[in-house]
C-alpha cells in the first residue's frame, strides 16, 4: 500500500471542515463525544502515574507481560503506544487479506468490503481495542479498512464519499468510555481525506435503556433485533457536508466486524429511508 498518498481526491467540503470535530463544525447538534470524561480521567491518571513513577516496570497492554526493556514502537504506525516485541511481531504479521470476490458479498443493495477474515489474532486485538481501551490499536486496525477501500474505489470511482461510522449506543459508550468506530473513522479520515459524517443514531433496545450485545445472538435474532434500530439524526440532514442533498451524496458505512451484516443492512436502510441512492459498507474484518 502506498503510504501517505490519498486514494481519494480531497473533497472541498473536507478542506473546509478539516480540523473540526469529525466535520461536525457549525452544526448545532454536538458530535457524539469520542471519550467519556471518566475515560479521559483514567488516561490522565495513567500518564500522571508513569510521570511520578518512571521506574515502575511498564506492562504491555495486549498480553500484560512486563516489558523488560524499552517497549517496541512501530515508527510507521506509532501513536506513542508501547507494545512488547512479541505483540508487535504478532501485529506486523497480520496482512490485509481482501479475499477474491469480496465485492460480490452484497447486503441487498449494499456492496461490502472487509480487510481481513475474523480469525487468528484478529479477535484478540479487536476485543482489546473495543472493550479494554487499548486505543493504540486504532492505527493498526485502520490499515485493514484502508485496504478494503481500494476495491470499492475501483468499482465506484474516486468521487468523495462520506464516511458514516456505525453508532455505538449511549449506554455502551458510557460503559466503555469511548466510541471506537468513531475513533477509527477519524483515523481513516486523516489518511484518506474522506469526511466523517456521524449522522446515524442507535436507539435503545426495548425500553430498558440498555442495548444488548449482538455477539451472543443467533443470525435470526440479530436480524430481527436490528430492524429499525438505527435512524438518521434529523439535525444531521442540514449538515454543511450535505449541501447538495442526501440523494447526491455517497455514503460509506464503517463498522468493526461484520458477522451476518444485519447491523450494516439496518444502517443502510436508515440512509435509504432518508433518500440516499448509494450506500456501501466497509469493515475491519468479516466472520467467515
Ligand atoms: Zn505484549
Explain the overall architecture.
A 5-stranded mixed β-sheet has the order 1-2-7-6-3, with helices on both faces. Strands 4-5 form a two-stranded antiparallel ribbon. The chain is built from 9 helices and 7 strands; from the N terminus they run αααββααβααβαββαβ. α5 packs across α7. The chain has helices at 12-17, 37-52, 85-93, 122-131, 138-156, 170-176, 180-192, 219-226, 262-273, and strands at 106-107, 110-117, 162-165, 200-202, 230-232, 250-258, 278-286. Bound molecules: zinc ion. Zinc ion binds at residues 60, 62-63, 65, 83-84, 86-87. Zinc ion binds next to α3.
Layout of helices and strands:
Blueprint: H1 12-17, H2 37-52, H3 85-93, E1 106-107, E2 110-117, H4 122-131, H5 138-156, E3 162-165, H6 170-176, H7 180-192, E4 200-202, H8 219-226, E5 230-232, E6 250-258, H9 262-273, E7 278-286
Parallel strand pairs: 2-7, 3-6, 6-7
Antiparallel strand pairs: 1-2, 4-5
Helix pairs in contact: 5-7
Zinc ion binds next to helix 3.
Task: Give the assembly state of these chains.
Answer: single chain
What structural category arises from helix and sheet content? alpha/beta
Small molecules bound: zinc ion
- Rg result: 19 Å
Low-confidence stretches: 1-31, 70-80, 206-210
Can you tell me the CATH architecture of the domain at 96-203 and 218-286?
3-Layer(aba) Sandwich
